[in-house]
Write a structure and sequence with these properties.
5 helices; alpha+beta; 7-stranded mixed beta sheet
């Protein structure tokens, strides 16, 4: 497996992975109609623009297996109020047929390395409460609950209860 910065040509694969991972992982958290309606092409132009930007709003790293993109991680400045020196892990998605192969752990380590390289002192993420596989990954990497939680519906239109995790990189 190889991890590298995403290229514009990876945008389609990234969005395909997002849709497949959400459909598989979020069945307990989001209505089936919503998951079925996800369109992997809907966000392509915005994703391509972000990846190709001189100063992108977030960094995207992809994991390749034999030349095929199988996972990605997005991270950058916190989208929500956070302490100074914080990097946010925005998203981590893996093709469902590649789950539990250590890819998520490798991508989390990439985010931690990016934080250290930028001299940041904290990495945070928000995770859907009850998402056991994600919680297991993050906790095994050393993330701990901050005690913060929220219910949001902006991303999906459906209320999702999220909890915050943090780690010192």
């Amino acid at each position: 497996m190889k991890v590298r910065a995403a290229r514009v040509a990876d945008a389609d694969a990234v969005d395909q992975i997002r849709v497949a991972a959400w459909r598989a992982a979020y069945r307990k958290f989001m209505p089936s109609e919503f998951l079925a309606s996800l369109d992997p092409g809907q966000n392509l132009e915005g994703l391509r623009a972000a990846i190709s930007a001189t100063e992108p709003p977030f960094q995207t790293q992809v994991a390749e297996d034999r030349g095929t993109v199988v996972a990605y991680v997005m991270f950058g400045a916190p989208r929500y109020k956070a302490r100074p020196g914080t990097l946010e892990l925005w998203a981590l998605n893996i093709k469902p047929d590649c789950w539990r192969q250590g890819i998520g752990r490798v991508l989390v380590q990439e985010v931690l390395a990016a934080a250290r390289s930028a001299a940041l002192t904290r990495v945070e993420l928000w995770c859907i409460s009850g998402n056991v596989p994600a919680v297991s990954l993050y906790e095994s990497a050393g993330f701990v609950l901050t005690g913060e939680s929220r219910t949001t519906s902006g991303l999906t239109g459906y209320p999702l209860h999220e909890v915050a995790y943090e780690i010192t990189p």
